[in-house]
What we know:
The chain is mainly β. The chain has helices spanning 147-155, 164-171, 244-256, and strands spanning 3-12, 15-24, 35-40, 48-52, 69-72, 78-81, 95-100, 104-110, 114-115, 121-123, 128-134, 179-191, 194-207, 210-222, 229-236, 259-262.
Amino acid sequence: MIKKRIALITLVAVMALGLIACGDKSKESIEVVNVTTSVSSTQSSNETNADSSTEGNVQGTATGHDWPYMEKGVNGSEYVVEAYGKCEDLTNWGTYTNFLLRDNWVYIKFPSLIPTGTNNVAYQSDDTVVLFRQVSESDYADQITDLESIVKVSMDYPDDFHSPIKLMKKYWKLHDEAFSMVIDSTEQVTVGQYDCCKYKGSVTYVKDSVEHVVPFVSYSSFTKGANEAFYWMVFDVSEDHSLGATIEDYAVKMGYTIVEGNRA
């Protein structure tokens, strides 16, 4: 008997609500269960849950796939099928959401809470914060020449809303306060289906006369469909910077879950 877990992601506006089906996917038995999607809006807001009660037949299997992929349902809509043949099973880890790029959708899991609306940043259920951003529609897109340049060039444009500096200053409600973001190391790696550049660095900012230092781990890559640049970052906002291993783990797991969908 083959055991598989399949996650169904359907699009409602720009938010994705998940339906995760688990159980025996043989001809004799298919079991569909509900899933709770948690969302994150602002740093000070409360966590809210939206229960998905949609049930339906599971389509497709993970056979022959080592990473998540897209399939079409009977109504023509695309959904994510989770398959993890070359890493630990992440079916029950994290929460899927999606982001619209110029020519593609990118589906990716956040560790626990997903951004609301058109936000790109979400606090998590622990002392971490996650950011995802595409840069294909930025003013500096033509200066992106390789994987490593994606985040580095983005940091050179702190007033562009595709830059992590602009996004994190907005998230932390900073205006004229001192703020700097530095990269300490970079490394070319393969994460799941994507060639990536991995960055490790930190943010230093002053708020209410108190200096804060926030370590981060980041990855950048290009979409396969249209070669659009994007990146994601995971920040350790704990007071004692004790979540270094956690942000490393979150960042790479997020990369394993990425899959592209066609823009309708």
